[in-house]
């Protein structure tokens, strides 16, 4: 399995500042190679390059609906850490920290908007039914099934239209997600996040997370991370939990466990080899953590994943 690698980006504010193009109430962006090479879609056949921020941990005031049409990797949303693949459709609330760590190339579409209570959007009585959806998105919502299929088609249409027709398509997307049955939607983060607009701790925590993602397979010492962030132990512990939803050790163990689940599903190495390669020094601890978080042991997980893959292949052939 290819190890997670952190992209080298210059230090900058954690908050992404999004500006809809002139004459637009929301922004549509797309990418065809990676999350750094992004363009804003202005009209059919017209787009302009913008800086892509999805390739590192960040947040913004705007809500965001993101569809990956190609690629795979690890998704970070609030306190959630999990795998994603092509077809992944996620709705993010305001100021919800997120990051997609892709393996290789990726492609997709995102729609970003900011409709606070004072926005004219809420002057229409019909839009009030969307308030509950916007609130639930504070934990991140993943859509699947028929809802995801319908929304995916509409997002492709949004990418190829402009003007009032594009606005109408966005309203249809929001209505579909509002009315989605429970089996088509699931929360990602255990709790809602709403980070302060600015904080001098945010860059430090971002650097800590980058370090952990780059080195989780190796022995990781808290002392090295404290030196990297220039924070005291109590301050770091408090701020890391506030920003990521996990303690330092919880975040590190979940990173390692996420990598192990992928290797179990895709590779043939033994459980012991995988545990050690993913940074666990004791296979007994790995097994206990695996059972506690995934409700099964590693061998059972591998068998389930392979059975699911075989069944999926059989359905696709019929």
Overview of this structure, please?
The chain has 318 residues and is an alpha+beta fold. It has 2 domains: 27-187, Jelly Rolls, CATH 2.60.120; 202-308, Homeodomain-like (Arc Repressor Mutant, subunit A, Orthogonal Bundle). The protein is built from 10 helices and 11 strands. The protein has helices at 131-136, 145-158, 163-178, 202-215, 222-229, 233-244, 248-266, 271-277, 283-294, 298-317, and strands spanning 27-31, 37-43, 46-51, 63-70, 73-77, 80-84, 89-92, 98-102, 107-113, 141-143, 185-187. It has an 8-stranded antiparallel β-sheet, with helices on one face. A 3-stranded antiparallel β-sheet has the order 6-5-8, covered by helices on one side. Strand 1 (27-31) and strand 2 (37-43) form a beta hairpin. Helix 4 runs antiparallel to helix 5 (222-229) and helix 7 (248-266) packs across helix 8.
Spans of at least 5 consecutive residues whose pLDDT stays below 50 are 1-13
- Put simply, the count of helices is 10
Distance between the termini: 31 Å
**Helical amount:** 40-55%
Q: Largest sheet, described in full?
A: 8 strands, antiparallel
Q: In the CATH hierarchy, what is the class of the largest domain?
A: Mainly Beta
CATH A-level architecture of the largest domain: Sandwich
Radius of gyration: 20 Å
Measured by DSSP, the beta-strand proportion falls in: 15-25%
How many strands in all?
11
The shape is globular
Secondary-structure content class? alpha+beta
Give the strand line-up of the largest sheet: 3-2-1-9-4-7-10-11
User: Could you state the order of secondary-structure elements as H and E?
Assistant: EEEEEEEEEHEHHEHHHHHHH
CATH structural fold name of the largest domain = Jelly Rolls
Overall tally of structural domains: 2
**Arithmetic mean pLDDT:** 89
């Amino acid at each position: 399995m290819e190890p997670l690698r952190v992209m080298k980006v210059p230090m900058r504010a954690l908050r992404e500042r999004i500006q809809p193009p002139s004459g637009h109430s929301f922004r549509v962006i797309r990418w065809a190679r990676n999350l750094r090479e992004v363009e804003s879609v202005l009209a059919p056949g017209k787009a302009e390059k913008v800086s892509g921020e999805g390739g590192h941990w960040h947040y913004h005031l705007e809500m965001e609906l993101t569809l990956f049409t190609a690629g795979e990797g690890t998704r970070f949303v609030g306190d959630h850490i999990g795998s994603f693949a092509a077809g992944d459709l996620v709705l993010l609330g305001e100021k919800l920290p997120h990051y997609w760590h892709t393996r290789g190339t990726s492609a997709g579409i995102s729609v970003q908007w900011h409709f606070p209570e004072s926005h004219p959007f809420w002057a229409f009585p019909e839009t009030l039914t969307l308030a509950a959806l916007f609130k639930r998105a504070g934990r991140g919502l993943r859509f699947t099934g028929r809802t995801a299929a319908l929304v995916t088609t509409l997002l492709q249409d949004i990418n190829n239209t402009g003007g009032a027709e594009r606005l109408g398509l966005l309203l249809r997307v929001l209505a579909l997600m509002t009315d989605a049955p429970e089996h088509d939607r699931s929360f990602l983060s255990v709790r809602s996040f709403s980070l302060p607009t600015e904080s001098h701790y945010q860059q430090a925590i971002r650097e800590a997370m980058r370090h952990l993602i780059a080195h989780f397979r190796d022995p990781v010492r808290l002392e090295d991370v404290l030196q990297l962030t220039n924070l005291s132990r109590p301050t770091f512990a408090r701020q890391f939990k506030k920003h990521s939803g996990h303690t330092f050790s919880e975040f590190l163990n979940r990173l390692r466990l996420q990598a192990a689940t992928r290797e179990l599903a895709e590779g043939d190495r033994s459980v012991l080899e995988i545990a050690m390669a993913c940074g666990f020094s004791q296979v007994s601890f790995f097994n206990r953590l695996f059972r506690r978080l995934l409700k099964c042991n590693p061998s059972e997980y591998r068998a389930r994943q392979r059975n699911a893959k075989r069944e999926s292949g059989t359905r696709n052939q019929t």
